[in-house]
Amino acid sequence: MFMSTSIGMQHAVDKLQTQINATLPWLKNWRLTLSPEKSIAIKLGRRELQNTSLLRINNTAIQWRTTVKYLGVHLDNRLTFRRHAIETAIKAKRTRAALYPIISHHSPIPLRARLNIFQMYVRTTLTYAGPAWGAQLSLNSSKKLEAVQNVALRTITGSPWYVRNTTIQASTHKISVQQSVTKDAENMYARLATSNHHHLRNICQTIGPEETARKRPKALTI
């Protein structure tokens, strides 16, 4: 992955192109290939792409996109992670549906085992890479993820419609998706603070100015 930052959009693109051009001979020397067809360029921020040139790999233009999937996380150009929440909810719903025969309250499997299956397959899908996107997620996007978990727990316990979701969570000793993501973030930053590697201790330590609505990942821990 290549990255560059600049006040001017074209200047950032020029720096990226310089990185790519410098890397291509090294890749060729080690008999590696950078595929233009599988490469995607994305701009993060509010500035428009008007009059901005395209990046090129071996004279093949790389088109600019508004969203990109990187290491299983959907990144959008405003870093709202709305697309990630939608795609994650869809994936978790499919997993929940596939597991329905064994996690339903009609299943002969003990309740504790069904909850463990939910934790391993559905919950991990909902909270994957949570410390990276949890602070940026809007309330509506967060509700989409919470709804998937609430339906799963209601399916597992067989609770009727009039029982509150908070009551079901308490009876099954489960916390909300947002609480789980926050807990993961706190554990991650605690491990980073005691790391022997200086560059790891400084990862995403800034919280951001209070006067702006844009939060940073560590804002989850306060």
Textual characterization of the structure:
This is RNA-directed DNA polymerase from mobile element jockey. The chain has 222 residues and is mainly α. It contains 9 helices and 6 strands; from the N terminus they run αββββββαααααααα. It has helices at 9-29, 82-98, 100-103, 111-127, 130-133, 139-157, 165-172, 177-193, 198-201; strands at 41-42, 55-57, 60-62, 64-65, 67-70, 73-76. The strands form 3 sheets. Strands 1-4 form a two-stranded parallel sheet. Strands 2-3 form a two-stranded antiparallel sheet. Strands 5-6 form a two-stranded antiparallel ribbon.
In summary, what is this structure?
With 222 residues, this protein is mainly alpha-helical.
Q: Indicate the multimeric state.
A: single chain
Q: Alpha-carbon distance between the termini?
A: 31 Å
Please, how many helices?
9
With strands numbered from the N-terminus, the spatial order across the biggest sheet is 1-4
Strand content: 5-15%
Largest sheet: 2 strands, parallel
Radius of gyration: 22 Å
Average pLDDT, all residues: 89
User: Helix content range of the residues, please?
Assistant: 40-55%
Count of extended strands? 6
Structural class, by secondary structure, is mainly alpha
Cα shape: elongated
The succession of helices and strands, N to C, reads HEEEEEEHHHHHHHH
* Regions with little confidence, pLDDT below 50 for 5+ residues: none
Protein name: RNA-directed DNA polymerase from mobile element jockey
Organism: Macrosiphum euphorbiae (potato aphid)
